[in-house]
Amino acid sequence: MKKLIVTMTVALLTGWAVPAMAQMPNINLLADGPSKTPEEREAEAARDKAYRDTMRKIPDAKTSADPWGNVRAVEQPKAAPAVKTTAAKKPKTGASTN
Q1: Are 36 and 44 spatial neighbours (Cβ–Cβ below 8 Å)?
Q2: Poorest-pLDDT segment among 35-39, 64-68, 74-78
Q3: Could you write out the three-class secondary structure of the chain?
Q4: Torsion-angle region of residue 13: left (phi > 0), alpha (psi -120 to 50) or beta?
Q5: Cα–Cα–Cα angle for 70, 72, 78, nearest 5°?
Q6: Global confidence as pTM
Q7: CA end-to-end span of the chain
Q8: Rounded to whole angstroms, how far apart are CA atoms 20 and 14?
Q9: How far is it, in rounded angstroms, from Cα 76 to Cα 73?
């Protein structure tokens, strides 16, 4: 019986501690890695420049992305004007319970 009480107490304390640990801020106590050497910085700058130059060479896609564009007519037909009726409105009869 005593083992059960100890186990339940440990489970209860663990249940309270886990959510509290999840709310703690993430603090990195280790120093960041060593900074880049000048050669690495130059190599990275050269890669970035080559990437930007390559991206400028790719033409912009100015065509429509509509796969059915050549099937549809260029101008949509205009709808016929609605026919106006002169019929009188019927008065509502009975009570509505809306």
Answers
A1: yes
A2: 74-78
A3: CHHHHHHHHHHHHHHHHHHHHHCCCCCCCCCCCCCCCHHHHHHHHHHHHHHHHHHHHCCCCCCCCCCCCCCCCCCCCCCCCCCCCCCCCCCCCCCCCC
A4: alpha
A5: 150
A6: 0.33
A7: 65
A8: 10
A9: 6
The pair of three-digit structure tokens given for residue 65, joined into one six-digit string: 């992305």
**Dist CA 40 CA 47 (whole Å):** 11
Give the pair of three-digit tokens for residue 42: 């130059």
Per-residue model confidence as pLDDT tens digits over 9-62: 999 888 777 776 667 777 777 767 778 899 999 999 999 999 999 999 988 767
Q: Two tokens at 74?
A: 């260029």
- Tokens at 89, concatenated: 């409105």
